Amino acid sequence: MTSDGQGFELKSVAHLVRPAGARARNLESLRLWIAEATTATLFYHTVQCPLRHPTSAELPPDDLSAWVHGVVQDRETAERISFAVQSRAGSAADLREALLEVLGSIPDKDRFSRAVPPESEFVFLAAESVPIPTGVCADDPEALVECLAQAEPGVWFYHLLEEPWYVAGPPAIARWAREHGDPSLAKVLEEEARAGRGLAELRRRVLKRWRQGRLRARVAAATRASEGERREAAHEAVVGLVRRMKRTDEDGGRE
Q1: pLDDT band for position 64 (50/70/90)?
Q2: SS3 for the chain, per residue?
Q3: Is 232 inside any structural domain?
Q4: How far apart, in whole angstroms, are the C-alpha atoms of residue 109 and residue 120?
Q5: What percent of the chain has pLDDT over 90?
Q6: What is the CB-side half-sphere exposure of residue 73 using CA atoms within 13 A?
Q7: Which domain, by its residues, includes 58?
Q8: How far is 184 from 220, CA to CA, in rounded Å?
Q9: Mean pLDDT of the chain
Q10: Residues 9-58: pLDDT tens digits?
Q11: Is residue 229 part of a domain?
Q12: pLDDT tens, 200-213?
């Protein structure tokens, strides 16, 4: 935030990863350690995964389901864990409950079987977050979108995935947009933050939906405007289109 409390400052994030002191060798030990895992550990193995593959349009697999599928070789359980992560990752409490429901529904003998050798055990890690100010501050929602269009993946991850997960609520960036007169942008940010997509697809959809909304609003306003106002609006639209095409060429067509 700016000193007057009106602007919105974008932040990126770095993660300090450390061992959590736990290892799982079968589904039972995985269940027991998930029950005891800290918020920072659940975050690293589920929510943080998209940041490791920021250019992927698809959501990368979480660490838990990837281990169950590839090492334990239990495809059905892996799919159920993946679904739990994608559908119940709104908070650490919800996520833990969903994961324990999946693993607790497996018969005891199956949870203890398929033990993996020591070198293939699942090593629990924890990620401590370090927010990084970017120095970029938006004074209004339109400027915010333009700043986001130029922001690196860590900014998108921090504001739309990490921050709302830790506070268990709507993204602060969406609340700010609503408070500053753009409920449509706030709705787009909230919906896309919950949609469970990779960062590249998240970015693409937010920018596309916002621009489409702006275009519809301008068209609606033009129908109520005078002939002179319509000509001026058309001119501004052409200038804006040329500016966006130039920016797209400069950044390699990412938008």
Answers
A1: very high
A2: CCCCCCCEEEEEEEEEEEEEEEEECCHHHHHHHHHHCCHHHHHHHHHCHHHHCCCCCCCCCCHHHHHHHHHHCCHHHHHHHHHHHHHHCCCHHHHHHHHHHHHHCCCHHHHHCCCCCHHHCEEEEEEEEEEEEEEEEECCHHHHHHHHHHCCHHHHHHHHHHHHHHHCCCCHHHHHHHHCCCHHHHHHHHHHHHCCCCHHHHHHHHHHHHHHHHHHHHHHHHHCCCHHHHHHHHHHHHHHHHHHHHHHHHCCCCC
A3: no
A4: 20
A5: 68
A6: 5
A7: 12-127
A8: 15
A9: 88
A10: 999 999 999 999 999 999 999 999 999 999 999 999 999 999 999 988 78
A11: no
A12: 999 999 999 998 88
Pair 35, 106 in one domain: yes
The set of residues, in sequence order, having a beta carbon less than 8 Å from that of 129 and lying 6+ positions away, is: 13, 14, 15, 162, 166
Residue 133 lies in a domain: no
Q: Which amino acid is residue 152, in one-letter code?
A: E
Looking at residue 114, what is its pLDDT?
85
Residue showing tokens 């799982």: 24
Radius of gyration of the chain (CA): 22
pTM: 0.81
In a domain, residue 93? The reply is yes
Tokens representing 126 are 């924890």
pLDDT at site 133: 96
> What is the band of 85 on the pLDDT scale with cuts at 50, 70, 90?
very high
CB 121 within 8 A of CB 25: yes
| Angle (nearest 5°) at CA 92 between 194 and 183 | 30
For residue 37, which of 131, 127, 157, 130 has the smallest C-alpha distance?
Answer: 127
Q: Convert the pLDDT of each residue in 108-127 to its tens digit.
A: 999 998 899 999 999 999 99
Q: How far apart are CA 116 and CA 80, in angstroms?
A: 20
In DSSP terms, 128 is beta-bridged to 16
**Domain total in the chain:** 2
